Amino acid sequence: MREPPHFATPQAAEAAFYSAFERADIEAMMQVWADDESIICIHPEGPRLLGRGEIRASWEQIFAPGVRLKFTLKDSRRTRDALLSIHVLREYIRVDGVPQGVMLATNLYQFVHGSWRMTLHHASPEPETRAAGSGSTILH
User: Fold this and answer.
1) Which of 2, 29, 97, 133 is 20 to 30 A from 38 (CA-CA)?
2) Does residue 101 belong to any structural domain of this protein?
3) Is there a domain that residue 83 lies in?
């Protein structure tokens, strides 16, 4: 069995996450995640997935159709201490060069056994810009 990769920084783990996503590489994707049953993933408009089994199954389902997404990451805001790094960013997604939308993502990385690993990924569609006075109410 191959030794899992070492991620010296949260940014290295994040780069590996998006690289695995773009290549639809399930093994590389799961190597980014912490080996812990408390990890959480919430795909856009999806349910909360808990643990490696549910998360792996979700990525297998996402990768199965063979569609390859390309990401441009922007507006990243990061905060970090010795053991935890929180990244909030926008994912601009394209398929075959065609824009597909923007997701607001929160990625948490934890320093575990000498390497940074993902413990949470949550992505939601960015709401369309609303006209002032549209009467919309923010509920949460």
Assistant:
1) 2
2) yes
3) yes
